[in-house]
Design a protein that fits this description.
The protein has 144 residues and is α+β, with helices and mostly antiparallel strands. It has 3 helices and 8 strands. A hairpin with a 2-residue loop joins strand 4 (92-95) and strand 5 (98-102). The longest helix has 29 residues, at 2-30. It binds copper (II) ion. Copper (II) ion is lined by residues 89, 127, 129, 132, 137.
Amino acid sequence: MAGVIVARMRIRGFAIASVTMAALALTGCSNSQESSTATTSAAATTSESTVAGTKIDVMESEYSIELSQQDFKPGKYTFVVMNHGQRPHDLAIKGPGIDEQKSSTVTNGETTELTVDLEKGEYELWCTVGDHKDLGMDVKITVA
Ligand SMILES: [Cu+2]
């Protein structure tokens, strides 16, 4: 019997805690917190486009992908893709924890960024435009 009572008290205590947290969350959204919340998200967006984590320069042209770094440790990386070629290119990546992510497509002289979290393992980076991958825009990196 005592066990049942303790269980009920725990459930009730949990319910109260949940309601309190929900109320706090609501208050936070609708009150003076709003401006600081907006500021925080704006700052996060800015730092992301400024380059989150380790910056890797990626030179793309017909038909190759060159990385400024070959050794990778687990962590956050931003691939800054520069199109030095004449045709449009992009950068896609897949590997542990990443099904497939890709940057926007850029034309000659343009840059685009792709931020990812790399885990230990092997990743493939390639260009998804046309048959560029088969033509040589395909590299593999190992995160160790
Ligand atoms: Cu390409």
